[in-house]
Design goal:
The structure is a homodimer of 413-residue chains. Chain A has 413 residues and is α+β, with helices and mostly antiparallel strands. Chain A contains twelve helices and 15 strands. In chain A, the strands form three sheets. Chain A has a six-stranded mixed β-sheet with strand order 13-12-11-14-10-15. In chain A, strands 3-9-8-7-6 form a five-stranded mixed β-sheet, sandwiched between helices. About 1% of the residues of chain A have low confidence. At the A-B interface, helix 9, helix 10, strand 13 and helix 12 of A face helix 9, helix 10, strand 14 and helix 12 of B.
Chain lengths: 413, 413
């Protein structure tokens, strides 16, 4: 099945500038696909720190297990990613494959095994043909170049309908630093399971402990606020490497996230992750509409996010949006099922900026016409005030369409 | 949109015998639908105890609020149910409607308001035209008869494609008692929200506190083990009334659920609720396959149920079943995302009785042919051993098909 490019795709892949201390290469190794690149190597200069956020799945892949252990070292020289095979649910053979890939990469780049990070995405339950990857490592190392971001973004695609990348710059003191990132993911991947992978690098010099705190906070307001179908991959991986090439005031490992020195970097990192996360949603399987759900009045920010995700994951809300139906009753239902505190009689809902319900009742003289018009667009905005406290969160999702069923049911593996 | 009868429907509505102490009536009141019964009254003789399990939704309807309060009294003389309008998210007007309906019913049956239970299902956010109901109460009371179970089951339908009923008998000591029940629900109800309603009566004489414990336990292994789309209605209501007409040994309020005197009654109640619950799943919107997911090896029974529901609610698992694809990788994914403890390397999965994966890997020489054949049937059996402890649970669901999208997206309210 050839997938058509999502109607919600950005116009084009952005121009990612070279990032000092990072180089990339992509090759066609024939892991599964023919005639396209399917392995990418990102190499970092010595001194690079790394932070990561990994899937919470209790059945995580061998590659995720490896990364979790390697993050304790906190140093990175390489990230090696393949598409076509997830190396998940492959037992001991799977971790042996990881060991071989890591060892060969470390040898090619003359670094320690613990400085090599790996990620795999694609078919699960099939042994990873790792020899096809390891035999290409010399050529991959030889091909490393600073301007291969787009090629890398393409190599990690599975059923994505477009490559995903983003770049931002930020000031730390008087020094400008760059952040580049690539991602993949489009809901769950036919014929198997989805995976969200994102790799971000910056030339800022950030101690590992601080980098991890920065990433965790930014991931919480971006990748942890998106959903396509509520399903969680065994392989979700988000890595942030800091090459330390930029000359800016020293950042102490214990620096508070609120420190003014970090302000612009935090803004840029948050912005970049949100951009990548939204690109993943815009490529959601079968997606025809991009949906923003802003929740306020929650008992806490966390509660507001849970309410937002309950709305975003509700099949009834998602199908109503697909049907361009301003069905606010289903939003009420989803708020109620989230399990978080909500005051039915203070609940307010707006769609496309028009208040539909206030204090638990449809607004007097509610005119559906402008709301119905809004529902016909590509970008749907839903705002919910649950009337309990001051917690806020925004989550992003897409609609649930016949296209989703086509991709996931009608396509036999 | 005229809905075709589900291919998973039982052959016919069972013959429900008269139940001493209970009488029913149904009428066409024009709450919303034309030309069909849409209100039903179930009346009980004095001395009837009642237990209930109500939606956990934080945006529950006014009727649910009323029932929760009335259950504290523990006595029932009437259950009044309407379809066509859920009286949910209707603010103060909604609870005023409930008050009027309750008062009129109490007057008609010469009982206390606190002995009247109500339930509403249908469109939400619209005021309940309660005068159409209250004005029919005299005629409803006059029509009360012991053999109206099927008419009552029909009157509470919304987008259900068939009426749902079940009957069982049980021995308490040397006395036979009867249990009759009716239910409605088919996932969430287009164009609004779904509701699962079930009303069960027995002629056994059971003190309220014991009845509540019996019902909670049986609901946990039946209605709390089904899912169509993971969405929770604001109005879900399950009531169990005991008229006390049967002459059996006295049951003390504090009797242990494990007491031999209760054994057969518990079996019958569990069996009846499971039957009704499965009938709801078999009428799931767009359902083409009935799916049983048996989980064992969980850290506890509760953990096993959560794992089962994670599998049952996964859009990827449900679409794979719709596509007749024995995609066990998606089952692994869903187990992993449940958040419950699972041992990836001891996980085993069987489909249609054939072991597909064992100890975290596909079984050696796995032959997909018999599994693929099983996937073509109407009844799909999935068994998962998560390899952690001794907890077990079985849950039931249906597949996710184009029919679900048709009903919920393409049908405009």
């Amino acid at each position: 099945m050839k997938l058509k490019k999502s109607p919600l795709a950005p116009r084009s892949f952005p121009k990612l500038p070279p990032l000092p201390g990072a180089a990339l290469a992509a090759r066609a190794c024939g892991v599964k696909y023919r005639g396209r690149n399917d392995v990418c190597l990102i190499a970092f200069d010595p001194g690079t720190t790394i932070a990561g956020v990994l899937t919470r799945s209790k059945t995580a892949s061998a590659a995720v297990d490896w990364c979790r252990a390697a993050l304790r070292g906190g140093r990175a020289r390489a990230v090696l990613v393949n598409s076509g095979n997830a190396n998940a649910f492959t037992g001991k053979a799977g971790s042996n494959s990881v060991d071989r890939v890591v060892k060969t990469t470390a040898a090619a780049l003359k670094c320690k095994a613990g400085e090599v990070f790996v990620a795999s995405t694609g078919v699960i339950g099939e042994p990873l043909p790792d020899a096809r990857i390891t035999s290409a490592l010399k050529r991959l190392s030889a091909d490393l170049a600073a301007d291969n971001w787009k090629a890398a973004a393409r190599a990690i695609m599975t059923t994505d309908t477009y490559p995903k990348g983003a770049t931002r710059s930020a000031m730390i003191g008087k020094q400008q630093v760059t952040l580049n990132g690539i991602a993949k993911g489009s809901g769950m991947i036919a014929p198997d399971m989805a995976t969200m992978l994102a790799f971000v690098a910056t030339d800022a010099k950030v101690p590992q402990a601080l980098l991890q705190r920065l990433l965790a906070q930014a991931a919480d307001a971006s990748f942890n606020c998106i959903t396509v179908d509520g399903d969680t991959s065994t392989s979700d991986t988000l890595l942030l490497a800091a090459t330390g090439k930029a000359k800016h005031p020293r950042l102490a490992a214990g620096l508070a996230l609120g420190d003014p020195l970090l302000r612009d970097f935090r803004r840029a990192l948050g912005d970049l992750l949100r951009d990548l996360a939204q690109q993943v949603v815009r490529d959601g399987e079968g997606a025809q509409k991009f949906v923003t759900i802003a929740v306020r009045g929650g008992a806490s920010g966390r509660a507001a996010r849970r309410i937002g995700l309950a709305v975003a994951n509700s099949p009834l809300v998602k199908t109503a949006i697909a049907g361009e139906d301003a069905n606010w009753g289903r939003i009420v239902m989803a708020v109620g099922k989230s399990g978080e505190k909500a005051d039915r009689d203070r609940l307010s809902i707006s769609i496309g900026g028009v208040e539909v319900a206030r204090n638990g009742q449809v607004v007097a003289g509610y005119d559906e016409a402008p709301v119905a018009e809004h529902m016909k667009g590509r970008e749907i905005d839903i705002a919910v005030d649950v009337g309990v406290g001051r917690g806020r969160a925004t989550v992003w999702t897409c609609d649930l369409t016949h296209g989703y069923i086509d991709i996931n049911a009608d396509y036999r593996s």
